[in-house]
Design goal:
By secondary structure, the chain is mostly helical. Helix content is 49%, strand content 11%.
């Protein structure tokens, strides 16, 4: 009661401050009243604050409808959120009791960390902004029937095979299995995206990264979220087939050949896991090597032509006396669109470095003859994988040197 008396004695000063500050909101002070009065005043206060902006409120059949204040940012600075073709341009309106329930949910949700499996068969991704929970993504996952509504183990392990014989000072990299979904997510992020995928699922991508990688993240991250977070894999494999090569070329242009080879191994392994239909690199290389050794000049098929072109291109470019064989040397081939232009590039590189080439090389001379005799008018962008497999796998022209 002592504090109440102190406050009563300050009323005149409080009223003076209210007038000076031109405070328009009302102030009620309770000293000793029934709990019901406190509850009523609390409801009045929350009713004014529960909606996004009271100017949007509408009274319909004695009930107040307004714009939710949770996960909704419509205001005068964000007119793009309005639905211009509707009679009422607000995206949606809810009743007061619904707004209260939503507020209670978001108050609870704000203290739940970054979990995505809080509700059965519901995917939620959120972050906190000044203590307020903001939902970035949500979805219903009816197909999830696991105990915790989250898939952790793959239906079938993925065998990642070292197709292009990637190695280091310790020898060739060993094949390995991917059994867990989180393991696959980390490998895909580190191999294709240089580790930048997981932290860039939502919002703007870090602008100081390579611009082409940034664009690839924007284009492909939806499919990655759908698989790794929502467990829908169809789009994931479509993206791997369509854009996997872009990641490989990106690594080459950043002078990271090992990462390019690693990415090619992963792309081919994922396609093999999903479809089971993939080029047999060892058989292709043996077949071409036999043809070169026996001077078999029958026309190459499309796959053989682009593979052999990749082999010749990298072999000749390695004859450059530059200390660092960077991506600039390979760039003219990566920009090539037609067979005609590809043959011209190979011919130009051969004449540039012919001083460093053994002119009596049976394999190289036969390979050049087969390449220049190829007559089909295929386009490189559609067969770039065969060219990259040739460019990044073990080079057959070094076997001749070893044999001699």
């Amino acid at each position: 009661m002592k504090k109440c008396e102190i406050l009563k004695n300050c009323f005149d000063e409080i009223i003076k401050i209210i007038k000076e500050k031109k405070i328009k909101n009302y102030i009620k002070i309770f000293f000793d009243e029934e709990l019901e009065k406190y509850a009523n005043e609390s409801e009045i206060y929350l009713s004014l604050k529960i909606f996004n902006d009271s100017s949007y409120n509408k009274k319909i059949e004695d009930k107040i409808y307004g714009l939710s204040n949770s996960n909704m940012g419509l205001n005068s600075k964000k007119p793009f959120l309005e639905h211009k073709t509707k009679k009422i341009s607000y995206p949606f309106m809810i009743k007061t009791d619904t707004a209260f329930r939503i507020k209670i949910f978001f108050d609870w949700f704000g203290f739940q960390g970054c979990k995505t499996d809080l509700l059965p068969k519901i995917f939620l991704s959120k972050f906190s902004d000044n203590g307020q929970a903001i939902i970035k993504d949500f979805d219903y996952l009816p197909e999830i029937e696991t105990k915790n509504h989250k898939i952790t183990t793959l239906d079938k392990p993925i065998n990642v095979i070292n197709f292009v014989k990637l190695g280091d000072k310790n020898g060739l990299k060993e094949d390995f299995e991917i059994k867990e979904l989180d393991q696959l997510e980390n490998i895909v992020s580190n191999t294709f995206y240089n580790g930048y995928l997981v932290n860039n699922y939502y919002d703007e991508v870090y602008s100081k990264m390579d611009k082409k990688l940034v664009n690839l993240i924007y284009i492909t991250r939806g499919a990655m979220i759908n698989y790794f977070k929502k467990h829908r894999k169809e789009e994931f494999y479509q993206v791997i087939e369509k854009f996997g090569t872009h990641f490989i070329i990106g690594h080459l242009r950043r002078n990271n050949n090992d990462k390019a080879k690693e990415s090619l191994n992963l792309k081919l392994s994922l396609i093999r896991h999903n479809k089971g239909d993939i080029v047999d690199i060892n058989a292709l290389q043996s077949r071409i090597l036999d043809r070169l050794k026996t001077s078999n000049y029958t026309q190459l098929n499309k796959e053989e032509f682009f593979y052999l072109s990749g082999q010749i291109a990298t072999y000749l470019l390695h004859k450059s006396k530059k200390h660092k064989k960077n991506a600039d040397l390979l760039e003219p081939f990566l920009r090539t669109n037609t067979v005609k232009r590809l043959k011209e590039n190979i011919e130009a590189v051969y004449f540039k470095y012919q001083h460093a080439v053994w002119l009596r090389s049976l394999l190289l001379n036969n390979a050049l003859s087969l390449i220049l005799a190829y007559e089909a008018d295929d386009e490189l962008p559609y067969d770039i994988d065969s060219f990259l497999i040739g460019a990044l796998s073990n080079n057959i022209f070094y076997t001749e040197n070893k044999e001699n």
